[in-house]
Amino acid sequence: MIRQLSSVEQGVVACGLIPIVRFERLQQAVGVAKALRDAEVTIVEFPMTSALALKAIEKTITECGSSMIVGAGTVLDVKTARDCISAGAAFIVSPCVNPAVIQTCRRLKTVVCPGALTPTEVYDAWRAGGNFIKVFPCNSVGSVSYIQSLKIPFPDIALIPVGGVTIANVGDFIKAGCCAVGVGAGIVDRDALKAERYDVVTKKASRYMQALRAAREER
């Protein structure tokens, strides 16, 4: 039986691009989210490596409403997962497989994307209840060719590569069978962020979306 996707899962797949936004000031986080929205990107992820991440989640939801799916990244433990969900995060991303975090998210009806690298980790993360599996760091193990290899034994596992996804290869990842991709500095340029040149973010995100959509049409 094919499992019915939740609205958040559907939104992630429909957009296909998850910008990972690292920032220094709260207003930068909101500014980037709005710039992404201008590029028709409806997802944003704020890593918990920032002390302001929870506030960024709350403020972005307040200012962008239902036009953005706001999530939390680098979630390593149950307490952090609960805090993020309480702040309004619609999805939780981790760089590793923590079954307790996965179980907590499932219990709280929140989409969870654990990080995995080896075939065993990918399978274990999926069996534990991951809605999507973040393949990280993908660029360290062969990039697109590695995804192609994983898809042979795991055709039904929803993979999201993070690490080394560029304008040049985003289409190849999609054609290899990825349901979405995660991108950080390739979209949110540090210099542009400091200068609050959010138009630069919009332009870069638009280029990614164009390449992603073109690949989907060809697939």
Characterization of this structure:
The protein is built from 10 helices and 9 strands. It is an alpha/beta fold and 219 residues long. The chain has a single domain (7-218), classed as TIM Barrel, CATH 3.20.20.70. A 4-stranded parallel β-sheet has the order 2-3-4-5, sandwiched between helices. Helix 6 links the parallel strand 6 (115-116) and strand 7 (133-135). Helix 2 (26-38) packs across helix 3, helix 2 packs across helix 10 and helix 4 runs parallel beside helix 5. The mean pLDDT is 96.
Could you give a short description of this structure?
This protein is an alpha/beta fold.
pLDDT averaged over residues:
96
**Radius of gyration, whole Å:** 16 Å
Largest sheet, strands/sense/barrel = 4 strands, parallel
Widest sheet: strand ordering: 2-3-4-5
Share of residues in strands: 5-15%
Which percent range fits the helix content? 40-55%
Structural class: alpha/beta
Low-confidence stretches: none
* Number of helical elements: 10
What does the overall shape look like?
globular
Run of helices and strands: HEHEHEHEHEEHEHEHEHH
CATH superfamily: Aldolase class I
What number of domains? 1
Distance between the termini: 24 Å
- Secondary structure: number of strands: 9
CATH topology (level 3) name: TIM Barrel
CATH class: Alpha Beta
> What is the annotated CATH architecture?
Alpha-Beta Barrel
What key attributes describe this structure?
9 strands; three-stranded parallel β-sheet; 219 residues; TIM Barrel; single chain; 10 helices
Question: Layout of SSEs?
Answer:
Blueprint: H1 7-15, E1 17-19, H2 26-38, E2 43-47, H3 53-64, E3 69-73, H4 78-87, E4 91-93, H5 99-107, E5 111-113, E6 115-116, H6 119-127, E7 133-135, H7 144-151, E8 159-161, H8 170-175, E9 181-183, H9 190-194, H10 198-218
Helix pairs in contact: 2-3, 2-10, 4-5
